[in-house]
Amino acid sequence: MATFKDLQDRIAADLTRDDLVSQTKDAILDAVKHYETSRFFFNTTRRKTFLTVAGQDSYGAAALAELPNIIQLDRIFIRDGISIYPLDRMEADEFEFLAGSPTTGNGKPSVFTYVDGALMLYPTPAAVYTLRPHMHFRLPALSDDTHANAWTNEAEQLIRAHAKMLLYLDLLDDMEGAQKMQAKIDGLKSRLDYETSARSATGRIQGTEF
């Protein structure tokens, strides 16, 4: 699996410059930041689950590493051993009034809110339930040369091209090089978008929701 350092080395070789180490790292991280709010097959999931704890209403990284890094939480489903139900979402201020009401008690959660990187449930779970969030999340940061994730592998070409474009623009003052990278970026982004769409396609025609 290609690492953060491998990506840096590829860019240095492409530019025939080995004296831009810190600038290349910054350009890669800026490129990742630019694309991490886009939904790709590697930063969205419906497969991860975690278990509730009886008497605990708030859940973060200890329950599921991705929870504090959620960009968009689409839906959450709960399994009680027999059936699967979607939880209703409430804004944090509405949830505050609900959870703090005198009738608050423990039971099977039916409502959630997401605030400050934590998922909060109501009612407070009375037992162990399985929760499955459908979410778009940030991948772990590339902070060490040995780190590797989808940005250095599945999206390596896109990140490499975007990082080089930033270097051409901000450091090398090479507008022609930047324009070439921009033309390349469009195709690479489209390819990832297509693969993401293909992987999530159901093969069924669905009606439009109004």
Structural descriptors:
210 residues, alpha+beta, 5-stranded antiparallel sheet, 4-stranded mixed sheet, 5 helices, 36% helix, 20% strand, elongated, disordered C terminus
Folded structure, characterized:
This protein has 210 residues and is α+β, with helices and mostly antiparallel strands. Helices cover 36% and strands 20% of the residues. It is built from 5 helices and 11 strands; from the N terminus they run ααββββββαβββββαα. It has helices at residues 4-15, 21-35, 92-99, 156-170, 175-200; strands at residues 44-45, 50-51, 58-59, 70-79, 84-86, 88-89, 106-107, 111-115, 118-122, 124-125, 130-137. Strands 1, 2, 4, 5 and 11 form a 5-stranded antiparallel β-sheet that branches. Helix 1 (4-15) packs across helix 4 (156-170), helix 2 (21-35) packs across helix 4 and helix 4 runs antiparallel to helix 5 (175-200). The longest helix is centred in the C-terminal third of the chain and has 26 residues, at 175-200. It is elongated and about 65 Å long.
Overall strand count = 11
Which residues sit in consecutive blocks of at least 5 with pLDDT less than 50?
203-210
Radius of gyration (Å)? 22 Å
How would you characterize the largest beta sheet? 5 strands, antiparallel
Principal-axis shape equals elongated
| Total helical elements | 5
